[in-house]
Amino acid sequence: MKDNICKKKKSKLGIRRTGFIVAFLAPTIIAFCIFYLYPIITVFVTSFCKWDYSNITSPEFFGFQDLWNNYEYIFKKYPFFWEALKNSTTWAILGAVVQIPVATLIALALSRKIKGIKFVRNVYIIPNMISTAAMGVIFLQLYNPSYGIINPIIRLFNKNFTDNILLLKGPAFIAMTCAYIFFTGTTTLMILGNIMAVPEEVREAAMLDGASGLKQDWFITIPMIKGTLKTVSILAATSGFLLYNEVYFLTKGAAGTYSISYVIRELAITSPRTQFGRANAVALIQILAGLVIILVINFVYSVSLKKEKH
Amino acid sequence: MKKKLVSVLLVAAMGASVLAGCGSSSVKEDGGEKKSESSGNNVLEFYHGYYQDESEWAAAQVMRDIYDEFAQEHADGDVTFKPIAVENRDDIVSAQVAGGSFPDMVDVGGDGIPQAAISQDLVYDLKTYIDENNLQDAVGLNYTQHDQDGHIYAVHDQIESRGLWYNSSIFEKAGISTDAFTDWNTFGDAMTKIADLGDDTYGYIAGQGSSYIVNAIMASTDAGKKMVESELTEDTVNSDEFANAFKTAAKLDQANGSEHTTDDNGNLMAEFNTNGNVGVLFNGVWNASGIDASLVDSIEPALFPGNVAIASAGGGLAVANNMSEEKTELALEFIKYMTSKEVQEKIFTEVQANPCNTTVDLNALAETSGDTATQKLAEACAQVNSADTIVIDMKYTWGSDVDKAIVNALMECAVSGTDIDARFESLQKELLALIG
Amino acid sequence: MKKSLHRKTVNNLPTGTKIVTYICLAWALIVSLVPLIWLVLSSLKKDPMARPGFQLPESICLDGYISTFKDLHVFRYFGNSLIVAGISVLISVVMISMSAYVVARMEFKGKKLVNILLYSTMFIPATALTYPVYNLINNLHLYDTRAALILIYSCSGIAVSFFVIKNYYDNIPRELEEAARIDGCGYVQTWVKVIFPIARPGIMTAAVLAFLNNWNEYYWASLVLITREKLTVPALLSTFTTAFNTNYNGLFSAMVVIILPPVILYCVFSKFFIEALSGGAVKG
């Protein structure tokens, strides 16, 4: 009898629990299905279809014989794919390896009580309020060889330098990277928020142990904010991988600076021979690469967590 | 305190979402009305790209006024003409086309009508109307250039006419005359002389501009001209004509310097039109209205070396297929109106563009206007219209992706020390992949 | 007590740490101020290209600002953007803080799948979204309405907000919920009364990020809105680029004007914001 009541209570709770889960998940899932699921399926299916300007409303399945037609074109014929993949991957790695440490250091600095720190904190996020498109326009001016500010600086070291750095293979890539990589305002803000949430007692205890300053940060603070670091690493790597506006505004792909997003847009939109099928083959690769990025970062962080436990 | 804040936040959030719900439903209603209105066959929506404020670009206001006038003239009709200024009509058109529809009427820019729209039979064939109403002269270049296997899908009220502009006082200083425009060798020599002047003065604005060098060199031989006038083929990519055109342009660009190179003329144009430290600018006739007052006496129009002009109908007015008879009729009426002498004169004098109607007497108009910019424009238009060789902008026949690949390759060649032959070989591969 | 502790923290910083801290702060200032100062300087020059770089303007030219405010109905754009960005941020943040809670805290079938699917949304290119979403908007008869944009913004950026918020939930000790449950709170109540307030810093961060994104978003805005009266702020920028030249003075002035509202909003709220950031989470 007693058992029965317990069970009843439990199952009632179970229903309630399920109801709660469903109710709380539903809005997001609906939004997801409308906005993303259908496109994901479309991307997947049509990447195996002939789908271009000649049959725009009726993609045509290649058949199993020619299943990989679009991929073959992308891998073997399309001249910019490998370059784009290499660039995008580099930007993704730079996001996680350069942006995150820089953002963390600045967040740590901003977490200390120093006069005027609020000012720095507020100023640092302003560049992130300017849209990347507008930033692209600004940097295009800064890099301009005739009236920008970069060439005069280079000329201090190399008097005869007159070339447009956005057209030099190598420097162009670096110049584009510099146009976005230092603006970590929002990332810093997220890290800072988490640093400040580290309980004072923990720091106090650490101080008694003799750890202070960066040492304290390294051994106490950083491990406590690992969750956030992982999240922002993923976000930074992702936005690096998806870089588009900088390519569009600064080089339009000249001097070996194509990115995956730029290739997709080029195939699907810019080309008068609209190539949705091929664009979606690249898009599928982009989605898969994104999942790889997430897996890798998850892996790196879980390994480092395990190490700590040992 | 915290609790209060949270509850306030929550209430605000809920309130907002409820409001949003109401808002969206009420907006939805009037959105719905609009839709039914347009599909109810009494509104002809016309998308165009002249959205700029008058203070930014006076010509945009002139075009809007021209459209409004037509709307007023036909205010009593069954169908209302409704011009709508939009900022990226090309994106809107391509989004609609991918969904299997086409705007009632649109002034297509950039790359012209998407092939996808034509292959779906979404665009009205204007040929019969033009023939029946004897509008051949009124539509001018459109009649031949926009002819696709006997169909005409667009009529552009302005002809995109390109030659070059040069700064005669810089030429004088460098000791060169217009003989520089005899051929591309003399042109190259002239540019070197200008660069030798020093003081930040240089030959020409390369990059986007140099794609017109390729275009013009191609047109200087019969075989090359034919290649530009048709789709890009493997034979063209591998032809001597193309190799010669590209390498000549690339060499000129390299001598000119990569710091004077841009993928968008607009980025550097002020150096020619305002600062006056550039010898030559490859730009359309419309540049007449962009010349600063201080330079108006020294900047003159000319043709590309070898007496070549680049003129294209480009995009233009396109009408949707399968509209009601009344709507189609009004749309056609509008095309007749836009190519009529009266409107075309306005397009010349006020919009400062080369009108498509060949019966307009540009010089007479320029003289009566007495405005220097208009006179310059008339001169430039006259030169283009009477050039020995008139060729289409290869962007329209070869596609903007090909054009961009060529511009990118040229820009990279402009960097001192670049191996032009090697870059050309990789360009060939790129182009073959793009058309494959 | 607390105050003295803080002071101690500053003074007790080892010299190395102090140096690193000041270097970081100096770097932060340089990086953010260089483009900013350049932008403001350029916006005050009549012809930014004639006096490039960091040269001071010959005379201060406010033409760009004047025309931005006078001819271009800036406040109309601001109003539109505030409505669209504001409402969609509220919707999406509430929606996602609900689902992120469930995923962070509850075990259920398909949880992994939900996670993976939401992750994958970050990598779907806009081109793949364009046509389905465009057709959806048309079918709902929302074309050329602000509601369409609100709908799009509420649904886009799910992944980022989800990440940020879920990460904060993960930091909250489970004991807090258990305590609430013992006090007799239901699931919903626990979330509303206990979790939501504690996770506020994360939710606020997500909201700020989403707002900035929506404020600057132009692709969708230009695609679904036709009527000029409804356009959002980024459309201002395209006004200065005509077929054959760019009015840089106007363009830069408009850029400065565009970033002003978020900057002001941020400065006004930053006090509350930082308080929320430092006062929230784990402490409980």
Task: Describe the fold and architecture.
- The complex is a heterotrimer of chains A (310), B (436) and C (284).
- Chain A has a single domain, classed as Orthogonal Bundle (MetI-like fold), CATH 1.10.3720.
- Chain A is 71% helix and 1% strand.
- Chain A contains 14 helices and two strands; from the N terminus they run H-E-E-H-H-H-H-H-H-H-H-H-H-H-H-H.
- Chain A is flat.
- By secondary structure, chain B is α/β, with parallel strands linked by helices.
- Helix content of chain B is 53%, strand content 14%.
- Chain B has 21 helices and 15 strands.
- In chain B, strand 1, helix 2 and strand 2 form a beta-alpha-beta unit.
- In chain B, helix 17 runs antiparallel to helix 18.
- The longest helix of chain B has 38 residues.
- The termini of chain B are far apart.
- The N terminus of chain B is likely disordered.
- Chain C folds into two domains: 61 residues, no CATH class; 222 residues, MetI-like fold, CATH 1.10.3720.10.
- Chain C has 14 helices and no strands.
- In chain C, helix 3 crosses helix 14.
- The longest helix of chain C is centred in the first third of the chain and has 32 residues.
- The two termini of chain C are 20 Å apart.
- The N terminus and C terminus of chain C are likely disordered.
- The chains are: A mainly alpha (310), B alpha/beta (436), C mainly alpha (284).
- At the A-C interface, helix 1, helix 3, helix 4, helix 5 and helix 8 of A face helix 1, helix 2, helix 4, helix 5 and helix 6 of C.
- Chain C: One of its GO terms (biological process) is transmembrane transport.
- Chain C: It comes from Roseburia inulinivorans DSM 16841.
- Chain C: This is ABC transporter, permease protein.
